Amino acid sequence: MKILFLTPPMGMWVYFGRMKSIYPGYAQLAAYLLEKSDVEVAVLDCPAYEYTHQQMLDEINTIKPDIIGMGCGTTWVHCVYEAAQQIKKRFPDIKILCGGMHFNAMPIESLKEHPEIDFVVVGEGENTLLEFLEESKKRSPDYDKINGLGYRKNGKVVLTQPRCLIKDLDSLPLPAYHLFPIEKYVHYSYWPRAVRIVTSRGCSGRCSFCVQWQQYDKRMKENVGIWRGLSGKRIADQAELLVTKYGVQMFDIQDDEFNNQAERIEEFCDEVIKRDLHFSWMFLGRADAFAKQIGLFPKMRKAGCILTLVGVEAETDEKLKSMGKNITISEIKHGIDELRRNDIATCGTIMIGFWDDDEAIIKRRAQLLDELDPDLMTVDILVPYPGTDLWDELKDSPRLEIKDFRFFDMAHALMPTKYLSREEINRLAAWMNREFYSKQKRIQRMLHGYSSPLVAACCRNYMEVASKAEECFLKGEAFI
Q1: Residue 478 has pLDDT above 60, yes or no
Q2: Could you say which cofactors this protein requires (predicted)?
C-alpha cells in the first residue's frame, strides 16, 4: 500500500507573492504513518517544482500510489478538484482522499458535487488516516467503523462518527521533512530556505468571521474553541532539525494563536538560546496576549523573532467586541510600540466589508491604522468562509453575490455592505493600501530601522505585493 500526499499545481496568493513552502499538515501526517504503519509514503509538491498538470500526471505514473491525499483551504479548492478530475481520468483505480479546512467544513457537499473525490477526512487526520489505510488493505473494507470519515455507500454520502482530538501534540513524531525538497522553498519572495511550521492547533478565540477556532469536527462540542500546543522544547526540537540538517534560515509560524501561553514561548526561546541555534522567525499573535507578555519581548528577539502579525481588524473597542475579539485599541497600540522598542517589526491586519461599513467608517479605520503605526499592513476584505458563523448566516442569502471559491481570498469583495457596493469596497481597499505605503518615513524605518536584514527584505516584498494587491482590488485578478 502506498499513499502520495499531493500539492497540485496552483497559482500564488497575491498577499504571499512568490512563495513556495512545505504544507505542514502533509509533513506531520507522513511522519505519523511512517512511525505507526508499514505503508509507503511519498510526497509530490508541484508548486515547488513548478510542475504543470501533465508533469504531475507523469510523476504519479512513476510513483504509482494506491491512494492520493490532498488537503487545502477554500481559496485553493478548485485546484484540488481540477487535479482530482485529471487523475481520475488517467488513473481511475487510484482512490482520492481529501482533508483540510475546506473539506472539514463541507464534507457532504464535496462528496455530492465532486464524484472524483472518493473519501473525505472530517476533523483531525492522523488516526483517521492510519485506520483508513489499514482498512483499505482488506479485500472487503468496512469504513463505517472508522471515525472521522466521509464517503459514498450505496450511492449515498455517509459520515461516520466524529473523532476525538489528540490531547498531547508532543506525542506526535517530528514532521517528515526528509520527504520534501527543502532547497526549493522560498518565502515572501525574498527569504530563501524558509518554511512554514505549525506549533499548535485550534484557537481559543470566537471571531465570527474565522474558521480556525471551529476547524475540527463541530459535531463534537468539545472540539470547538479548543487550543492545543506543542511544548516549547518540542518546538525547539523541530527548529533544530530544520536548521542543522536542512539549513533552514527562516520560519513562518502559521499558528493562529502562537502566543496563547507565555510559558510556552519562554521555554521555546530558552531552548533556542541554550542550544545556540541561529535562525529568524515570525508569527501571528493576539494583541491582548502581547499586552501581557511585554516582558518576554527581549528574549523573543534574542531567540530570533523579527516580525509579528497583529490583528487590528476594527476601529473601536465596541466593534472589536462585537466581532468576538477580546482586545482593545489601547492594548494593540501598546503591543506595537513595545515590539518596535525591542527590534521586532509588526504587520497590522485590518478588515473591511462589515454590514455597517460605510466610506467614513472605513476611512476612520485607515486613520486608526496610521496612528497605531505598524511597519506593514494588509487590508483584508471580509469573507464568509465555509465553517464560520458568517457562512451559516450568508450562504443562502442574496447578499452573497459571488460564490466562486477562487475569490474567497480576502482580496475581493464578495458582498455589498448596507451602504457600499462591492466595487466601492474594492476601491476603498486599494486606497487604504496605497495610502499606508505612501509614507516614506515608514518605508525607510522598515528598510533601515531594524537590525535584521530579513525585515528590509520583507518590506521590499510587501511593497511589491502592494501593487499586485491593487490589481486584485480593482481588476478582479484572483491569482498571480
Answers
A1: no
A2: [4Fe-4S] cluster
pLDDT at residue 219 in the model: 63
Dig out the grid coordinates for 57 from the structure: 500526471
| CA distances to 117, 125, 201, 232 from 69, in Å | 10, 11, 20, 30
| pTM strictly above 0.85 | yes
Domains identified in the chain and CATH numbers: 2-159 (3.40.50.2300), 185-475 (3.80.30.20)
Calculate mean pLDDT across residues 122-140: 96
Position 13 scores a pLDDT of: 59
Q: Which three three-digit cell numbers place residue 235? A: 518546538
Q: What is the pLDDT of residue 15?
A: 56
Sheet with 305-313, strands from edge to edge, namely: 194-197, 250-253, 280-285, 305-313, 345-352, 376-381
User: For 361-397, what is each residue's pLDDT tens digit?
Assistant: 999 999 999 999 999 988 999 999 998 889 999 999 9
Question: What is the percent of the chain with per-residue pLDDT over 90, rounded to a whole number?
Answer: 67
CA distances from 405 to 75, 77, 78, 213 (A): 6, 7, 7, 21
Torsion sign, CA atoms 400, 402, 408, 414: negative
Nearest residue to 172 (alpha-carbon basis) of 17, 33, 310: 33
